[in-house]
Amino acid sequence: MHPIYFGKRSKKKIQLHDYIRSKSIPMSVILISTFNHYNRIFLYLIDSVWFSIVKVGSALEELLVVDSVWKRFGDKVVLKDVSLVVHSGEVVGLLGPNGAGKTTLLRIISGVLKPDQGTVSIKGFNPIDSRARKLIGFCPQEPGLIPDLTGFENMLFYARLQGLDGKSVVNRIKELSGIVGLTDDIDRLVRKYSGGMKKKLGLAITLIHDPEILILDEPTTGMDPGVRREVWRIIEEERKRGKGILIATHYMEEADALSDRVYIIDQGKIIASGSPEELKSKYGPTAVITIEFYRQPRDLGDVLRKTGLKYIVDGDIVRIHSSDPDRDVPRIVALIHGAGGTIRSLKVVKPTLEDVFLRLTGRRIE
Ligand SMILES: Nc1ncnc2c1ncn2[C@@H]1O[C@H](COP(=O)(O)OP(=O)(O)OP(=O)(O)O)[C@@H](O)[C@H]1O
Ligand SMILES: [Mg+2]
User: Fold this and answer.
1) pTM, 2 dp
2) Proximal ligand: closest to the CA of 98
3) How far apart are CA 119 and CA 131, in angstroms?
4) How does DSSP assign 93-111, residue by residue?
5) What is the set of domains in the chain, with CATH numbers?
6) What is the pLDDT of residues 15-37, one digit of tens each?
7) Which value, to the nearest 10 degrees, does the dihedral of the CA atoms of residues 226, 229, 231, 233 take?
8) What is the C-alpha to C-alpha distance for residues 84 and 118, in angstroms, rounded to an integer?
9) What pLDDT score was predicted for residue 145?
10) Which residues line ligand 1 (CB under 6 A)?
11) For residue 131, what are the contacts with CB-CB under 8 A and spacing of at least 6?
C-alpha cells in the first residue's frame, strides 16, 4: 500500500481523501487515530465493514522549506530558483557535480549566507533567527576545528557555543565519541587526526545539541569505504529518531543508499527530484551494458561512438545505455572484436543515478 501523507498542504489532504474514496469508505465510519512516535504521526483507518486496521502511512512534518532561492557571486549566478523540502524522518540527498552550488545552498540554509531572492524556513523561522539555529546542526564541508585542542576540547568548545554546560555535556561528548568511533582518540590533539577522523569529529559536533535538522555537506568525502559505512549507519540512526537530514554529495552510491528522496542539482538549477527508484525509472535507460576488457579495442572512443548509444567510461569499466540489450549486445561485441578488443566481462544491469545524470545532462558527475 502506498503511504498517504497528510498535513497543512492541501495536495496531501487530497491524497488522503482520494484514498478514502477509492476504498468506498463513507467518511462517517472512519475512525482516524493518531499518536506521536519520534515526531511522526501514524494514521490508522479503521474500516468498520471488515473491522480491519489499515496502516495508511505517516504524516511527515515539513522541517525545512527552501522556496525559489537565487544567489549570485559577482556576475556568476550560482543558484537559480532553487526550491526543496525536507520532512521529519527522511534523508534528502542534494546530488550534483563540483561547482553545482551545493555548498552555497547549504550555507544559505544554515544562515551563513543570505539569499539574493527567495526564502528559507526552518519550522517557520528565518535561518538567522536564534530559534532556527537551535533546530539546525550544520556540518560544513571542512569542519572548523581548532587543531591545537583535543577532540574532547573541540566538542566542549562547540557545546558551550550552543549554550550547553555542566556534567551532562561531558556525558554527551563521551556518548557521541563512542557513536562516531573516536573514543580512543578523543583526548589527542586534532592536529594529529587523519582527514576521516576530522570529518567524524565534525559530525559529532553537529550532533552535540541533538538538533532536529541535520545539514551535512559531503559528510564522507575522503573516507575509506568502511568508515563511510559507519557514517551512513549514524545517519540512518538519526533518521530513525525522526530527524530531517539534508546531505550534499557527489557520490552516487551515497545518494542512492541513504536518500529517501534526491534533488539533482547542476549549474545552480534543480534539474530533477524524486526517490532514487523514481528517478531511475523516469530518466534512466531501460538497461545498462557494462563491459570490462582483457584487451581494450585500438580506439575505444571510436568503437563507443559507432554504437550510437550514450556511454560512460568509468575507470576500466564502460557503461553503455541501451533500450534493447538483445539487439545491442551482439552489435557491440562485434564492434569490439572488429577493433582488436577482447572482453573480460559483459553484464546487463539496471541503471544507477550516475546513468540518470548522464541522461539528463550528457555529462558525468565527477
Ligand atoms: N564566496 C564565493 N565567491 C565567489 N564565488 C563563489 C563563492 N563561493 C562559491 N563560489 C562559486 O559558486 C559556485 C558554486 O560553488 P559551491 O561551492 O556552492 O559548489 P559545490 O556544489 O559545493 O561544489 P563542490 O562539490 O566542489 O563542493 C562555484 O562556481 C564557486 O566557484
Ligand atoms: Mg561543496
Assistant:
1) 0.80
2) 1
3) 16
4) EEE--TTSSHHHHHHHHTT
5) 10-59 (no CATH), 62-280 (3.40.50.300), 285-350 (3.30.70.270)
6) 555 555 555 544 433 444 444 34
7) -140
8) 12
9) 94
10) 73, 78, 96, 98-104, 141, 250
11) 125
